[in-house]
């Protein structure tokens, strides 16, 4: 009220009464005048006043009906209404108050008393508005706290599930489920570096109706990844709009880079719903940051666990499985093949004249040979096959669901590929590598892994004794 004068609407069909009101009130208030109930309703609807002075006896729509209609309008019902009338009857005054009027003043009016009553009503209305505003603020704050409490519960549940995950693939499913609850009404996705090409990000989890991001996209197309931080875009005209969209995003969005110890683990992308205000946007941004912290720590822990598992079962030089893994896995594969009435082939491989490589070129050259052979084996194996470094230059292949003849054909091709292998060392190329191979097929009912490997090793000895660079099948 201090910044501008209160606006009062006077509705009266008598010009003399309006003149008296105008003279009495125009110095302190901005006065609007209407000469009928419908005109007053129209003016009030167009520009709601702070208070309405209303005559009772008017032709057509009288003051009582006008007041009743005002109180049915959501935008006008709280405006104080004061009847100013010559109708000096208890029933009339009672009816006026029942209609929702705040006061009832009899004509002829006393200017000083009328002004004071108006001041009191306006002050009371101002206090009511302040209380209503505070109530709305408290209600909004309570809703915010309730949302935050719900988010905390849902986030903690997601963290508990992530901690129980055995792989990153399993974690991706948990993240999609948890994010769908946390970001209800908003779409989003999680993208992680593509294993085949680390410069690309691959979408591994989605929730909501997110259709604007392709399955794979270049990491450099995302500003959040470039900046290694939060990237928020509120409109399509932004100069920092990301380039990884199939089509322009339908709304504002948030992107959060997931980085731990200098390594990018992925991107959390949230497409915001259009119907949210600034406060909700701020809350959603805070939620996104909190969830991103939980996700990146979970993914980092799972990646570390996988790396530790790999280190425990892999030979670091060749990339093949180690002897320990072979000893654990071969008996299990034998039992499985026996249950399914299928055969299994074990092959022992030995690099010919490996000692000469070490003696003539050095142990680093020998390492390059083993590294090259290991990579070639990994490229030529089926999903069910198993390649291990048995020890030194000796390697082992386990081929489930294969006969000795089938295995022989495959291993002949591998032997020829190894002969064609080019091993580079110290700006030069090492001599051709050859390999000797011994094959043994499991027998019906055989569960003794050591016996199977011993037969394959005996066949390998025969291959080496026969002149090396050949495949020999163990005699049945």
Secondary structure layout plus pairing:
Blueprint: E1 7-11, H1 15-25, E2 30-34, H2 37-46, E3 51-54, H3 63-72, E4 81-85, H4 90-98, E5 103-106, H5 111-163, H6 168-182, E6 187-193, E7 200-207, E8 216-218, H7 223-227, E9 230-233, E10 253-260, E11 263-271, H8 278-313, H9 323-339, E12 344-351, H10 354-361, H11 363-380, E13 386-391, E14 394-400, H12 404-419, E15 424-425, E16 428-429, E17 435-441, H13 449-465, E18 471-473
Parallel strand pairs: 1-2, 1-3, 3-4, 4-5, 17-18
Antiparallel strand pairs: 6-7, 6-11, 7-8, 9-10, 10-11, 12-14, 12-17, 13-14, 15-16
Helix pairs in contact: 2-3, 5-6, 5-8, 6-8, 10-11
**Oligomeric status:** single chain
**Which radius of gyration do the C-alpha atoms yield?**
42 Å
The average pLDDT value, as a whole number, equals 88
**What is the helix content?**
40-55%
Secondary structure: number of strands: 18
Spatial order of strands in the largest sheet: 8-7-6-11-10-9
How many helices? The count is 13
Quick one: overall form? rod-shaped
Low confidence ranges: none
For the termini, the CA-CA separation is 106 Å
Largest pleated sheet: 6 strands, antiparallel
Strand content: 15-25%
Sheet/helix structural class? alpha/beta
Description:
It is a single chain. Helix 10 crosses helix 11. The longest helix has 53 residues, at 111-163. The protein is built from 13 helices and 18 strands. It has helices at residues 15-25, 37-46, 63-72, 90-98, 111-163, 168-182, 223-227, 278-313, 323-339, 354-361, 363-380, 404-419, 449-465, and strands spanning 7-11, 30-34, 51-54, 81-85, 103-106, 187-193, 200-207, 216-218, 230-233, 253-260, 263-271, 344-351, 386-391, 394-400, 424-425, 428-429, 435-441, 471-473. The protein is rod-shaped and about 135 Å long. It is α/β, with parallel strands linked by helices.
């Amino acid at each position: 009220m201090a910044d501008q004068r209160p606006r009062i609407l006077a509705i009266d069909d008598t010009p003399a009464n309006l003149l008296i009101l105008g003279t009495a009130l125009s110095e302190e208030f901005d006065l609007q005048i209407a000469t009928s109930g419908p005109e007053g309703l129209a003016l009030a609807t167009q520009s709601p006043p702070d208070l309405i002075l209303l005559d009772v006896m008017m032709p057509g729509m009288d003051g009582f009906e006008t007041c009743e209609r005002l109180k049915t309008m959501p935008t006008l019902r709280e405006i104080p209404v004061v009847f100013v009338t010559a109708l000096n009857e208890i029933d009339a005054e009672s009816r006026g108050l029942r209609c929702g009027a705040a006061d009832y003043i009899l004509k002829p009016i006393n200017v000083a008393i009328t002004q004071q009553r108006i001041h009191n009503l306006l002050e009371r209305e101002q206090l009511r508005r302040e209380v209503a505003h505070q109530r709305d603020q408290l209600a909004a704050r309570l809703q915010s706290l309730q949302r935050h409490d719900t988010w905390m519960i849902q986030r903690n549940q997601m963290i508990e599930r992530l901690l129980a995950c055995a792989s990153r693939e399993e974690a991706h499913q948990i993240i999609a489920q948890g994010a769908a609850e946390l970001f209800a009404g908003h779409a989003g996705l999680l993208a992680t570096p593509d294993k085949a090409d680390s410069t690309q990000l691959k979408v591994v989890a989605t929730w909501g109706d997110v259709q604007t991001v392709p399955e794979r996209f270049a990491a450099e197309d995302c500003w959040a990844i470039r900046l290694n931080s939060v990237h928020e875009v509120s409109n399509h005209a932004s100069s920092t709009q990301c380039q990884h969209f199939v089509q322009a995003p339908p709304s504002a969005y948030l992107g959060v880079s997931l980085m731990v110890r200098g390594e990018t683990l992925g991107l959390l992308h949230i497409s915001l719903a259009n119907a949210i205000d600034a406060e909700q946007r701020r809350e959603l941004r805070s939620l996104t940051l909190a969830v991103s912290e939980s996700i990146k720590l979970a993914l980092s822990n799972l990646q570390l666990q996988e790396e530790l598992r790999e280190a425990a079962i892999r030979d670091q030089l060749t990339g093949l499985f180690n002897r320990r893994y072979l000893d654990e896995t071969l008996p299990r594969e034998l039992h499985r093949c026996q249950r399914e009435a299928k055969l299994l082939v074990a092959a022992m491989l030995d690099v010919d004249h490996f000692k000469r490589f070490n003696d003539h070129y050095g142990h680093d050259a020998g390492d390059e040979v083993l590294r090259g052979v290991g990579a070639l084996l990994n490229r030529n194996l089926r999903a069910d096959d198993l390649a291990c470094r048995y020890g030194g230059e000796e390697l082992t292949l386990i081929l489930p669901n294969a006969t000795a003849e089938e295995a022989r054909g495959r291993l002949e091709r591998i032997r020829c590929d190894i002969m064609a292998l080019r091993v580079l060392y110290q700006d030069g190329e090492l001599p051709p590598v050859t390999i000797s191979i011994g094959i043994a097929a499991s027998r019906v009912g055989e569960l003794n892994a050591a016996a199977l490997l011993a037969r394959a090793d005996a066949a390998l000895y025969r291959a080496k004794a026969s002149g090396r660079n050949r495949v020999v099948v163990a005699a049945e």
